[in-house]
What we know:
Chain A is an alpha+beta fold. In chain A, about 50% of the residues lie in helices and about 10% in strands. Chain A has helices at about 15-45, 90-105, 125-135, 140-150, 165-175, 180-185, 190-200, 225-235, and strands spanning about 60-65, 70, 80-85, 110-115, 210-215, 215-220. Chain A has a six-stranded mixed β-sheet. In chain A, helix 3 (about 125-135) runs parallel beside helix 5, helix 3 (about 125-135) runs antiparallel to helix 6 (about 180-185) and helix 3 (about 125-135) packs across helix 7. The radius of gyration of chain A is 23 Å and the shape is globular. Chain B has one domain (about 10-145). In chain B, strands 1-2 form a two-stranded antiparallel ribbon. In chain B, helix 1 packs across helix 5 (about 120-145), helix 3 packs antiparallel against helix 4 (about 75-100) and helix 4 (about 75-100) runs antiparallel to helix 5. The longest helix of chain B has about 30 residues, at about 1-30.
Amino acid sequence: MAKQAKAAQGGDHFTRWLVIGMVALVVVTGVVFSITSSKTKAEASFIALKDYKLGAQVNGTVDVAQGSGLVLNPGAPIKIDLWEDPQCPICRLFEESNGAYIDDLVRTKKATVVYHVLSFLGDDSVRASNAAMCAADEGHYLDFHKALYIVQPALENSGFFNGPNLIKIGSYLGIKSKSFTDCVSKGSKLAVVQAQTDAMSKYNVTGTPTVFINGKLWQRKSGAFDLNEFRLAVEAG
Amino acid sequence: MRNLHNRYQNIVTFIGRFVLGGVLLVAGGLKAFKPADSANAVAAYKILPTQFAHLVGYALPWLEIAIGLLLLIGVSLRWATIIAGGVMLLFVASIISVWARGLLIDCGCFGGGGAIDPALAATVHRTYFIEIMRDLGLAFIALYLYFFPYGLFSIEKPAVTVKEI
Lengths: 237, 165
């Protein structure tokens, strides 16, 4: 194959280095811009928790027979099983649409809700799930769970869900006890968190969010999560 | 045949630069201002350690934009084609690796990315195949441009007209 000759300025080292320098400059500027914008966004998300009003205490128990899920309000006629990972973006969409309704079901004792706090998306999920289970001991699982989705960073496993930030989330909500902060920093709930994720295969849960209503798998029919659709499914049982 | 190629080479080269540069510029532009999505998309391949994958996810769109622009305006064409071709082959290797390990992800080539709904598992193999073919095609264009970088609407021009050997 005949090749074309080098460019007229082919031997011009200055031009070549100028171009390489420009490309490098564009890439480096882009990276710096990306890192700073991701960081500021994550930090700014705390502001959304500023006026958070802590709900009444709801005590839950971990039931080994139900995949080590956290059972809130046992014995109600309707039972909802929620399998969620704190870092899962679709779980956040599910919570934005249906979270308040589910909270209400628990607080008015209309339904039993079993939370399976998963952590298969990575270390950030493990730490966040641990902290959520710590909050459960304080009777504030619902609040902490909601807060995790409010601040959920777009970037997964960025290290944003670390001990100090999780304690900070707790303090914004009003969960400040020493038992909570110790539990978060020591990772006291890691065994339960692991057991919950391990239970996925037993219940054929392959992704999140997975929802069972009275033991039956629920799947949305509309493209986005719709509160009315979900409410009708819950009421139908 | 040779004469025919000689006659239309500058047009073929221009079309090749337009396609390859255009695809890179669009792909980069769609991702550059969604850095978190891009970083997640690279991490979802599970090839690099997470933190390093995030850096690659931040850098890649800007590299694509820079190389795309060089190809479109016709500057430093040989370097640009080497990098463009290399990047395409890396993409092909990454998708093959993902496919071989049975991961179900969106390639994130033009934004988006990450794990996909397990319900779509049936179509994903076809998608992987199409993506591999597309990137191989683009790599082939890069190879052609390496040998024939100079054509219409290019800032860089060859020093002399080369005769056929």
